[in-house]
Design goal:
The structure is a homodimer. Chain A has about 140 residues and is α+β, with helices and mostly antiparallel strands. The first copy, chain A, has five helices and six strands. In chain A, a hairpin with a 7-residue loop joins strand 2 and strand 3. The model of chain A has no long low-confidence stretch (mean pLDDT about 90). Chain A binds a DNA duplex (30 and 30 nucleotides) through helix 4. Chains A, B: Keywords: DNA-binding, Metal-binding, Repressor, Transcription, Transcription regulation, Zinc.
DNA sequence: TCTTGACTTAGACATTGTCCAATGTAGGAT
DNA sequence: ATCCTACATTGGACAATGTCTAAGTCAAGA
């Protein structure tokens, strides 16, 4: 995602300090931040940044396909910058840790035609749930 | 789910009018209501029922394994009474309609051991997304 | 029928997200 | 280099969903 800013500028994005900071936060460790966590991390570098701007910017990044929105519980959405590699998620039922995983096989092929009800299916999301090694102990 | 009330009584549930009405609402058409929709439907039969009781009862039914909690977007959770038949969900990206579907194959087997990071995996949730026939038109 | 511990209620509160009017500014035009 | 202006940001009000608590109510066993 290092050339993200270039790609965005190419699409007519106005490059502001706020947007740069949000993009840099997501570009860091491969984590799954909530919007509030992104805001907190961004505010360390740019203290006046507002929540509204973080929400706006995250929404734009999602629309542009640069970031994926993940909802593993009913709580806050999380933002996954690993949008250019198809992957699924493994979630600890106890501590909530999220890991990216890569199932084998064609997930779409598992749904028979008569189970598609005429839908034009474009995406499959899989969440594996269980206990991580720490919580299982 | 017709013998639900019997099963619950067997587990020491105190059977109140409120709980009966919530269970009856879920037992109706095979829909995926939000908590507020359950509350509205329940209030038609029992006008004084409170939101808190509906939330409590739904939470209990989920804990008891009688109902499944589904989060397909970041909005309200939905409650699926079809808990005794393993199934997954097909969601229309435009209108939000949800259908229960039954993929073939062993979904768990698709995740290689080295992609499990030591987790003890106990469940797999799959959401297929696409446009339903009406919205695709 | 009495008693009691579990259940329900109303409403305050918490979390997450959205919207708006006022203000600021990036980047093209001059 | 400076100016313009459309687009971006801000702060705070508002909305949607869910949780908690103290006080009152009731199902079901004795």
């Amino acid at each position: 995602m290092s050339d993200l800013l270039e790609r965005l500028r190419g699409r007519g994005w106005r490059l502001t300090a706020q947007r740069r900071v949000v993009a840099e936060v997501l570009d860091g460790d491969h984590v799954h931040y909530t919007a509030d966590e992104v805001h907190a991390a961004a505010a360390e570098r740019l203290p006046e940044i507002s929540r509204a701007t973080v929400y706006n910017t995250l929404g734009e990044l999602v629309s542009l396909g640069e970031v994926i929105e993940v909802t593993t519980d009913g709580r806050a959405k999380r933002y996954d910058p690993n949008a250019h590699h198809a992957h699924q998620h493994l979630v600890c039922a106890k501590c909530g840790t999220i890991r990216d995983v890569h199932p084998s096989g064609d997930l779409l092929a598992d749904l028979p035609t008569q189970e598609r009800y005429g839908f034009a299916i474009s995406a499959v999301e899989v969440t594996y749930r269980g206990l991580c090694p720490d919580c299982a102990a």
